[in-house]
Amino acid sequence: MTSHNVSLTIADSNDLPDFKKELQEAFAVAVIEEFGGLPDGPIPSDDDLDKSIHAPGAVALRILCEGRKVGGAVVTIDEKTHHNSLDLFFLKVGEHGQGLGHKAWLAIEARYSQTVQWQTHTPYFEKRNIHFYVNKCGFKIIAFFHAHHLDPNHTGTSDLAGSEGFQFEKVMR
């Protein structure tokens, strides 16, 4: 692994179209590998992405490596409880395997150092994400959502990638 300087910046509103396109491209890789295509369009949909980016407390972050855009994240920050969520996290296609994701996560933790607890989620078939959150970032799996135990927060329209998944939690203090 090469040493890279990873930093975060707030995503500029002019950058949001590229941010969304890159996120959808990154998410598409695993969906296409698992299911062979995206019959219902990009995942997440443009509408779901807009809702996430513009939700109360949401912050869209750009992940930079040596000043170059390599990914992004959307976090929801609760300034009162400090129980925060990592709603979306991605590295651009071609940027995996260099340790950038872990460094980006550590930068998010440092940026929001008052966090008491983080929560996030990922589809069941995303083994790379599960490994990343549990083995690299220290999250614990706290729920498995499926047909008989539905995710009460899942509002997406696609059953393809959203019907089964894990919820993770990381207690910081």
What do these coordinates show?
- With 173 residues, the protein is α+β, with helices and mostly antiparallel strands.
- The protein has a single domain (6-171), classed as Gcn5-related N-acetyltransferase (GNAT) (Aminopeptidase, 3-Layer(aba) Sandwich).
- It has helices at residues 16-35, 46-53, 100-111, 127-136, 159-162, and strands at 6-10, 58-65, 68-76, 83-91, 117-123, 140-145, 165-171.
- A seven-stranded mixed beta sheet has the order 1-2-3-4-5-7-6, with helices on both faces.
- A hairpin with a 6-residue loop joins strand 3 and strand 4 (83-91).
- The longest helix has 20 residues, at 16-35.
- The radius of gyration is 15 Å and the shape is globular.
- The two termini are 30 Å apart.
Question: What quaternary form is this?
Answer: single chain
List how many beta strands DSSP finds.
7
Distance between the termini: 30 Å
Name the helix and strand elements from N-terminus to C-terminus, one letter apiece.
EHHEEEHEHEHE
CATH homologous superfamily assignment? Gcn5-related N-acetyltransferase (GNAT)
Helix fraction bin:
25-40%
Task: State the name of the first-level CATH class.
Answer: Alpha Beta
Give structural attributes.
5 helices, globular, alpha+beta, 173 residues, Aminopeptidase, 31% helix
Outline the secondary-structure elements:
Elements: E1 6-10, H1 16-35, H2 46-53, E2 58-65, E3 68-76, E4 83-91, H3 100-111, E5 117-123, H4 127-136, E6 140-145, H5 159-162, E7 165-171
Parallel strand pairs: 4-5
Antiparallel strand pairs: 1-2, 2-3, 3-4, 5-7, 6-7
